[in-house]
């Protein structure tokens, strides 16, 4: 028999879907700003493996030569991005949902088992509640990253007035590198997230819009066997 | 019409089956999702295609974004304090090759001995000050990380007169009750507007030296603004005139879509 099982509260769904366009706009406008001084690359032993970013990337997305526009968008949407994040964090704290989200001691060990299971190397996944160990780590990490973007962002936005934040980030240079690296992190998160959502299927995806999952429960026997002896019923 | 959200089925109406509940809730949530996504997309398009602001002291930005920049300025001005100082470095860390990014307003060469700084008081009175007069004032040096709006930064070493010392010496204190300072190059091709608190910040200099030598032509000989609480775009080279006003003075990059405040 089909049964409706509540999964994601409205506040979670709302902040999740509001965050998607907001973060997209922040990344887009951030790349326009980054173009102004695109100095980062991956170099190992004198060989440059990748330059952020190749010219074709800027051309394809039209990121070149709009620095003023990029800054104006970035400094407007930063407010909404931060506000949405604060609402989400407050909600998880007040509702107690954080208990489902924050990694537990065993999560770090279990996350490997989840990974092996997802890669079809291991048959059984560890038992879980709402989120598995890998999800707990990922969904908490992404919030920490969001906070990181906020702090590193403020550190490079107002390095004189918020000098203590700049100091905390290891200086102006490092703060800008962290701010950039976090963005790359979001993109990697997004790729894995999408793959996982596709693999998890429709029921899971729907729950992030409708809030519930449909599960098949075996009907309970109508006639219960009442114990005739003094034995306690087996639960 | 019945309230569709009413939970009590009236009369002989059957309670919804699980299938009906599922499709009803799907309809409502997916419907809302599509409508809200559409609204968000429409809002984004409207913002992106909003008209460019009318040309005033600022120009070139999308109207609502300019409004947002100006409002955001008000928020961050609250954090401004003369106690918040830009980080300074030892002299040895200063770049020997000081980067210079633009020559707007510093075309040709200026005759340093003939050059005079024109200070325009609001009353209309004008002071003309030569570079040697300025060099007689107490000298202040700073080694700090110069930050460009493009995203690069460089530790550089400057020497000159603290703007607030300059104000006191020329008895311009009454002028600092006004909200803004305007500075322009002699050819009037480059110009900046600075809010008074930033101008009076203890690290703002009228600089005549870089790396302990007189400013070269490309760094704005004989006198330039060094204002560490602002991006490089506000650090005007080759100052020709200084004026005071309650209105925002014209600003070269604010006319090209950049934030007027551009404070750090």
TrEMBL record, chain A:
Compartments reported by the entry: Cell membrane
Residue ranges spanning the membrane: these are: 20-37, 71-91, 137-157, 177-202
Residue ranges occupied by any Cytochrome b561 bacterial/Ni-hydrogenase domain in the UniProt entry: 8-209
Any one GO cellular component localisation term in the record: plasma membrane
State the SUPFAM superfamilies in the record: Transmembrane di-heme cytochromes
UniProt main location, coarse = membrane
- Which Gene Ontology terms cover its molecular function? electron transfer activity; heme binding
Electron transport in keyword set: no
- Keywords, sorted A to Z: Cell membrane, Membrane, Transmembrane, Transmembrane helix
Q: What processes in GO biological process is this protein linked to?
A: respiratory electron transport chain
Q: Does the keyword Zinc-finger apply?
A: no
Topology of this chain in the membrane: Multi-pass membrane protein
Its name, as the record gives it, is: Thiosulfate reductase cytochrome b subunit
From TrEMBL, chain B:
Q: Its domain of life?
A: Bacteria
The region annotated as signal peptide is none
A Pfam family reported for this protein in Swiss-Prot or TrEMBL = Oxidored_molyb
Q: Which Gene3D superfamilies match?
A: Oxidoreductase, molybdopterin-binding domain
Q: Where is the Oxidoreductase molybdopterin-binding domain?
A: 110-253
| InterPro entries hit by this protein | OxRdtase_Mopterin-bd_dom, OxRdtase_Mopterin-bd_sf
Stated name of the protein: DMSO/TMAO reductase YedYZ, molybdopterin-dependent catalytic subunit
This protein's species is Mucilaginibacter pineti
């Amino acid at each position: 028999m089909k049964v409706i099982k509540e999964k994601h509260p409205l506040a979670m769904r709302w902040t999740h879907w509001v965050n998607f366009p907001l973060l997209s706009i922040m990344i887009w406008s951030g790349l326009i700003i980054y173009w102004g001084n695109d100095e980062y690359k991956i170099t190992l032993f004198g060989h440059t493996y990748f330059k952020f970013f190749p010219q074709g990337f800027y051309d394809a997305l039209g990121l070149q030569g709009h620095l003023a526009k990029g800054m104006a968008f970035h400094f407007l949407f930063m407010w909404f991005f931060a506000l949405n994040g604060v609402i989400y964090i407050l909600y998880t704290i007040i509702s107690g949902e954080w208990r489902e989200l924050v990694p537990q001691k065993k999560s770090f060990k279990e996350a490997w088992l989840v990974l092996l299971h997802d890669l079809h190397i291991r048959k059984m996944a560890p038992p879980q509640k709402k989120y598995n160990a890998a999800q707990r780590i990922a969904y908490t990490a992404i919030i920490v990253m969001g906070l990181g973007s906020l702090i590193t962002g403020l550190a490079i936005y107002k390095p004189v007035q918020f000098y203590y934040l700049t100091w905390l980030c290891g200086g102006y240079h490092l703060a800008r590198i962290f701010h950039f690296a976090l963005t790359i992190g979001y993109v990697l998160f997004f790729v894995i997230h999408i793959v996982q959502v596709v693999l998890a299927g429709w029921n899971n995806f729907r729950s992030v819009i409708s809030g519930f999952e449909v599960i098949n429960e075996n009907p309970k026997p109508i006639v219960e066997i009442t114990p005739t002896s003094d034995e306690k019923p087996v639960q | 019409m019945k309230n569709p959200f009413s939970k009590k089925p009236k009369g002989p109406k059957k309670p919804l089956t699980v299938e009906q509940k599922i499709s009803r809730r799907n309809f409502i949530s997916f419907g809302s999702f599509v409508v809200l996504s559409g609204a968000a997309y429409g809002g984004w398009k409207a913002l992106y295609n909003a008209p460019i602001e009318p040309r005033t002291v600022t120009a070139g930005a999308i109207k609502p974004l300019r409004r947002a920049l100006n409002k955001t300025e008000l928020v961050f001005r609250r954090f401004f304090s003369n106690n918040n100082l830009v980080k300074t470095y030892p002299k040895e860390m200063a770049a020997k090759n000081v980067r210079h990014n633009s020559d707007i307003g510093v075309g040709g060469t200026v005759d340093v001995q003939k050059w005079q700084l024109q200070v325009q008081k609001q009353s209309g009175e004008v002071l003309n000050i030569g570079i040697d007069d300025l060099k007689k004032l107490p000298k202040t040096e700073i080694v700090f990380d110069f930050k460009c709006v493009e995203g690069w930064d460089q530790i550089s070493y400057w020497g000159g007169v603290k703007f607030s010392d300059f104000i006191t010496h020329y008895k311009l204190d009454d002028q600092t009750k006004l909200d803004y300072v305007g500075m322009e190059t002699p050819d009037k091709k480059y110009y900046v507007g600075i809010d008074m608190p930033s101008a009076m910040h203890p690290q703002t200099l009228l600089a005549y030296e870089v790396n302990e030598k007189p400013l070269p032509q490309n760094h704005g000989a004989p006198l330039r603004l060094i204002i560490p609480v602002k991006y490089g775009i506000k650090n005007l080279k080759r100052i020709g005139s200084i004026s005071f006003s309650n209105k925002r003075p014209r600003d070269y990059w604010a006319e090209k879509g950049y934030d007027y405040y551009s404070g750090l």
